[in-house]
Amino acid sequence: MQEMEIEAAAPSSRMGRRFRVALALLVGVVAISAAALAWLETNSGRQEESAFVNASRNATDAFVKIAASQPRLYFQLAAIRESTLLDAQATARPVELGNDPLPFQLSLSVSSADNEASRRLLGLTEAMSTLPDLPADLDTRASEAIRLEGQEEADQIYAAQAAALENAAQHGTRQERAMFALGLVAISASILGIAGLTGEGRAGRALLGTAGASIVVAWLSAGSGFA
Amino acid sequence: MVDAQDESDQRDLRVVLLLGCAAALAAVVGAYAAIVGDRGSDRWHQAIREDIRHGARIVSDARQLYQEDAPVGHRVAEYELRANALEGEAKDAAGAAAAILEAEAEAQRNTAEVLSSSSPLVEGDPKHAISLTGADLMDRFTEIRSEVSPELAALAPDEVEAKGSDEQRESSLLVATTLASGIAFLLGALAEALPRSRRRLTNAGLVAVGAGAVLAGLVVSI
Lengths: 227, 222
Description:
Structural class of chain A: mainly alpha
Oligomer: heterodimer
Helix content of chain A: over 70%
Radius of gyration of chain B: 39 Å
Shape of chain A: rod-shaped
Largest sheet of chain A: none
Order of helices and strands of chain B: HHHHHHHH
Number of helices of chain B: 8
Number of strands of chain B: 0
Largest interface: A-B, 70 and 80 residues
């Protein structure tokens, strides 16, 4: 077995006009395809990263709103509980005493006072828990962060994040297909180079056909990312 | 014969020049697009980091308001309300009962005063505590938010992300302008294959390279 150079394996032959034009056209198509697919790959990558950034910021937003709203809700619950306990204590106090006049009278008076205080305290709790419209000097994000009321609002943020991740996956697929297509285009360019060395002939025409087919497959691959 | 050879050599050189210019344009524009795109990507990552810092501060401020200031204000109000109610009951009572009720009311009021002195929400005024509203809490929240460091106050993740998006868009458009180089390559290759049309094709190719350079310049300037 001995090594053989490609020129000996497939000796060069003269190139006719049709072969030269076909070769030139394919070289040009390869160059245009490379530029177009490079743009497609760059653009898809940009949009994928943008979607990931959106998803990441949505996740941060969700956690900030949940973490910032919980203290307000817990304060409201604790304040209501305290007000209610005051009332319960006031109601239970006279029951525990006997019929001794002074302690019983004092107990009734204190309980009556605590009932009144509890009622007003509940009203105060409601007033403190009611959020006004956006104060002029408070930044919008901080104001919105403490206003999360329930799971439904959190679910809206989760839905936005899920949509962003789906968008990222879609553009990621397009980017991968475009990169694969660029690889095929690079192979086509190499094949065309060998076709130029080989010249017209059965081998040269086969190489042109292979290069052309490779370019078509490259574009089909890139296009499949949009399906 | 010699003149025809010279003319042919010159045409070949023009094609080589065209292809060289197209390749150089694609390389320069592509490299600059990569730098700009990388810068945009860095800004996006910076926006995420700033977002997290900004959000963490909001959570901390909300905790201070609703886990420290608001509960203290509510407790001051409770003491003050009990004091007011006990005073009312003392007026309806007589003798020892009235004295004890008045003493208890005074004790509640003193406790409210002591506690209120440590509360930025009621600022040493227990009577203010019993009329607190959500608007008062929001004013206090605004006050807490204004105490952030200048570095933290300067964070603007939305603006940083927008700037990063602009740079990424610029990068993408610059890569798109390399299509002109591809067209120049096509015309240059055809110029080699079609000697009779070589001059026209070469000139068209040079126009394509020029148009690509102008478009890239427009993208960068805008």
